[in-house]
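Ticket #4471: complex job returned nothing on first submit. Input attached below:
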Amino acid sequence: MSAITATDVTRAEVCCTAVAECFRGDGEILANPIGIIPMIGGRLARATFEPDLVMTDGFAELVEGAFPVGTPAQSVATKVTTGWNPYRTMFDVVWSGRRHVMMGATQVDRFGNQNIWAIGGRPVPKVALLGPRGAPGNTINDPTSYWVPAQSPKVFVESVDYVSGVGYDRAALLGENASRFHEIRRVVSNLGTFDFDTPDHTMRLRTIHPGVTVEEVETATGFDLVVPDEVPDSRLPTPDELQLIRTVIDPDGLREREVPSPR
Amino acid sequence: MADKRMIEADVVAQIESGMTIGIGGWGARRKPMSIIRELLRSDVDDLTVVSYGGPDVGMLCRAGKVSKLVYAFVSLDDIPLEPHFRAARQSTDVEFLELDEGQILLGLQAAAWRVPFLPTRVGLGSDLMDQKELATITSPFDDGEVLVAVPALPLDAALLHLNLADVLGNTAFLGPDLYFDDVMAQAASHTYVSVERVVPSDELVSAAGCLHGLRIGRLWTSGIVERAGAAAPTSCEPDYPADWELLKRYAATAGDPAGWESFWSEWVMGADQ
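Support reply: We reran it on our side without changes. The output follows.
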């Protein structure tokens, strides 16, 4: 197979490898990506460069293999169950520090605070969302990453309305001891990847997806993003990765619905 | 030994206005919906509800039964946002204690173990700590760590739905996840369990297929309601999946008073039980 170029892959496929990269180096921990592209990326990481990752079927089973996302029937036929991980046990995993979750974020701010809880005023919000869910516990105990399928200034906000997932400014206020397990690893969006590898842990543009400009990213961001002089492109999937994505993990192309390629 | 079988109306006769009730299951999974239906029909109100919430919470809120909700999320799974809960959350009619999912477990566990709180790192740095019900506590040991004290969440009653029981009140679950039903039962003064079917005591293990499913025994239960399909429209694996058609219809009634009226007359008032 000849070398892959940007025209051979969709934006969604770049997002899949960008998610996979978040789990690089994690080793034998529970990788818990939530969302279609996060699940594809997590399974891709395990099928390629991070084989020791432990993963669930999205419910109470720990499963091996690179089984497909989406269709439960297909998953049931191909998944290899090796463990029982009901919700109760998930807290044992989370509180022991053996997990890296990738959650969604209705809002995320420059310090990585995340909100899936509610939008608008207090104590009565304008828009109630899910509630805090497990975000407070996830972020104070384990590495946490976020997935944003449609980045905009309404998602990348200066300051979130309700802090469900704890960001670096909040963690700093707790002191070194209380925040020693806190880490916001990465944010992956449809436009690029972001980290907090700056002196004050404010969000930095880490890579940019091929075909996206820095300007586009900044326009879709509601705060002053740290932008290095040179921003590398997010890497393209290898031929092997592309084949895994297209034929094994997401044969139905669900990824393209989550992140449609720009026209 | 007592025969603990009863019907939903007997359960609801034990529930008084102002009580704190825990509801088992998770989201749109294994909710004791036939007991919830009977509660909706009753004049009981002013309830404090603790739940990993699904349509149980939405319906009770919509019907004005809830004065305080203790929750981490309310969701219909494939319909991520529960519209009736959202309407309540966006109003001033209901008081809320918002907790991390794991904090609810700790609060129930504290109640079950009869201690006033359990410590955890969960909640530190988040806006959960703005609530007066949560406090921090400093470790009395050399580490001096500051942790969150999650207050005990004692329940007057727990309402659960499981797969099997015997008449003595021993139960079994066959699905992939017990969720927090066992801790809820242990945190409650009384626990009422609807089940798909009642089997003879000497067949419970074989019917469950495995000893491990016999997690909530008669030490913890006050009543058993035998009602096949009692979790519908939520799922009860492996007996049946969620009834998505009905859940979608229910969700759509949030912005549609006439739709709610017809849902009420059909699903709440119309069902035989």
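DSSP finds nine helices and eleven strands in chain B. Closing as resolved unless it happens again.
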